[in-house]
Amino acid sequence: MRTLRSLTVGAALLALAACGSTAPAGSGDAGAPKRGGTLKVSYFPDNPTLSCIDPFQVYWIESRSIIRNFADSLTDQNPETGEIVPWLASSWQVSPDGLTYTFKLRDGVTFANGKPLDAQAVADNVAGWIATVKATNGAAFGASYIQGLTGAKVVDASTVALQLSQPNSSFLQATSTTNLAITDPAEFALTPAERCTGKGVVGSGQFVLDHYTAKVETVITKRAGYAWGSGLSKNPGEAYLDKVVFNYIAEDSVRTGNLISGAVDIAWPRNPFTPQDEQLITRSGHKVEQRALPGVSYTLFANTAEGRVLADPAVRLALNKAIDRKTYATTVFGSSYPLVRGAFDSTTPFFRPQADKLAYDPDGAAKALEAAGWVAGKDGYRAKNGQQLLLDYPTTQFSAGSELLQAQLKKVGINLSLRTLTPAQQSTYLNSGEYDLTGTYFTRADPGALQFILNPDVANSKALARRSAPADGIVKIQALFTKAIGTTDAAQTKQAYADLQDYLIDAGVTFPLFERVQKAGVSSKVHGFAFTSESFLRLNDVWKD
Questions:
Q1: How many other CB atoms sit within 10 Å of the CB of residue 236?
Q2: CA torsion sign, 425 to 397 to 510 to 375?
Q3: Separation between Cα atoms, residue 391 and residue 398, nearest integer Å
Q4: SS (H, E, C) 320-387
Q5: Sheet strands side by side (includes 510-514)
């Protein structure tokens, strides 16, 4: 058997060497940490359709950030390098065929209710994950993390072997995520819906889930005797804080105002602060911490089905050249906002910059359209064979800067028609195929996240995946994913993901729009703030004056 860490660390270091991720904040805070107090965090509203606090099921970023602090995982991931490091597991090995991951567990770890976190508990979690996938027909978000996982075998009290039916180079990283956090297996006796309410959900973390009142408040309290934090924290022991209260505020301005007034300690919006709010926070003596969310950048995907305008590769080429991404980012999010440079955000392991290919080139866009027969008309829009160059772009409340994008495309003769979707339409328009462009993303600190958008075999929306590229393009994308994931050779994985990222831009499969940056307004009284590799909140080192 080979140690998987030796296979992955070098590639991850190379991939993240040029990333613009923010170093964990608080390293320069003066004075010794103080114990006690309550931290108040104000989040964007809870999930409007599926409120949930169960680690395996939930995809809502705010809930996963809370979970990270009351439920530990087998491994942890360094946000600076992408390296997978020990946590609940002190070491691990992977078999040469990539089908068995054997974890050696730390001694003395317990769940918050006092039960031991041993090999049997991990094996029971694996069984619970697999059962939850079946019970939810694959809807549980954790399903995307356990591809090929068939079960687990207890080797001895502190050793457990997880078994896969096929190699999955993303699996080790999956064991560091909140979705594969280890919880008291007793929770799996409850229904998935019951677990979403927090009933029976008990982790081994630095905090304990006190209560979760969906859309209102979540409270976690200090865990006495905690002593097994990962080496990525300065404080692996008991939390400095006594309690953390999370509430949910819809209005960005109210959330910011509460931070300025001292009503809350951290204001955490879903979209980045407006430039005005960010200036207000910093001028008031507080800090704005930021880190790009790993995974797929906020990207537009085309409908290339036969008969649609974007089936024409020349139009797709022109579209990428016609987007002024720098102006877009600085206009919508502020002058210091980073420029998106590829299909992934820069904090994603194996990230390959594509900035040159994504450079703003309106003249090149015009030439590509002219060569393909799209002729400019008196109204400023191009047409071909009597058909206007019209792109239907359905939008939601999260589609930032749509009008600006519309104005940019008009400069090269593309008519971007904006259509605001009703809640009912949001669940149907992809299947019907009534769109030309759609925007989406996927948050995970591993490039395998993109397959859940583009690979029809596993995509969350198979309709979107099938239309995002011509048939031969889908075959190529699937082959590159297979090459990247179906190996334990880090060099092969790295090369396959590099080839994939090149192809996505060259063939006009993806149209990156902006880097997804997670920002948080942090009171000057708060010290030790840090982001995890998933750009979630890590509370281990946080204390208040």
A1: 16
A2: positive
A3: 19
A4: HHHCCHHHHHHHHHCCCCCCCCCCECCCCCCCCCCCCCCCCCHHHHHHHHHHCCCEECCCCCEEECCE
A5: 437-443, 295-302, 510-514
pLDDT above 50 (res 197): yes
**Terminal CA-CA length for the chain:** 49
CB within 8 A of 39, min separation 6: which ones? 241, 243, 244, 245, 265, 266, 526, 539, 542, 544
The angle that helices 313-322 and 362-371 make with each other, rounded to 10 degrees, is: 160
Q: Mind listing the pLDDT tens digit for each residue in 111-150?
A: 999 999 999 999 999 999 999 999 999 999 999 999 999 9
The pair of structure tokens assigned to 221 is 């309290």
Task: Determine how many CB atoms are found less than 10 A away from the CB of residue 355.
Answer: 12
Q: What are phi and psi of 362, to 5 degrees?
A: -65, -35
pLDDT of residue 20: 36
Residue with tokens 């949910």: 248
448's tokens: 């395998």
CA torsion 335-337-342-348 (nearest 10°) is 160
- C-alpha 450/C-alpha 444 separation (Å) is 9
What angle is formed at CA 327 by the lines to CA 518 and CA 295, rounded to 5 degrees? Answer: 35
| Other Cβ atoms closer than 10 A to 503 | 17
Structure token pair of residue 361: 């080139």
At 50, list the tokens.
Answer: 């599926």
SS3 for 251-286 is: CHHHHHHHHHHCCCCEEECCCCCCHHHHHHHHHCCC
Distance, in Å, from the CA atom of 414 to the CA atom of 63, rounded to the nearest integer, reads 40
Q: Are 183 and 202 in contact (CB under 8 A)?
A: yes
Task: Return the amino acid letter for 189.
Answer: A
Secondary structure of 149-182 in HEC code, one letter for each residue: EEEEEEEECCEEEEEECCCCCCHHHHCCCHHHCC
DSSP secondary structure code for residue 482 in this structure: H
Q: What is the mean pLDDT of residues 245-272?
A: 96
Supply the mean pLDDT for the chain. 93
The one-character DSSP state at 471 is: H
**Cβ atoms within 10 Å of 44's Cβ, excluding its own:** 18
Q: Which residue type sits at 280?
A: L
453-484 pLDDT, tens digit each? 999 999 999 999 999 999 999 999 999 999 99
Measure the CA–CA gap between 16 and 349, rounded to whole angstroms. 6
Per-residue pLDDT at 398? 60
For residues 62 and 249, what is the distance between their CA atoms, to the nearest angstrom? 12
Which residues 6+ apart lie within 8 Å of 516 measured at CB?
Answer: 292, 293, 295, 297, 298, 345, 441, 443
Tens of pLDDT, residues 362-408: 999 999 999 999 999 999 999 999 999 999 999 876 667 999 999 99
Whether the CA torsion 418, 44, 252, 26 is positive or negative: it is: negative
Smallest CA-to-CA distance from 249 within 238, 239, 263 is with 263
> Which tokens sit at 175?
């064991």
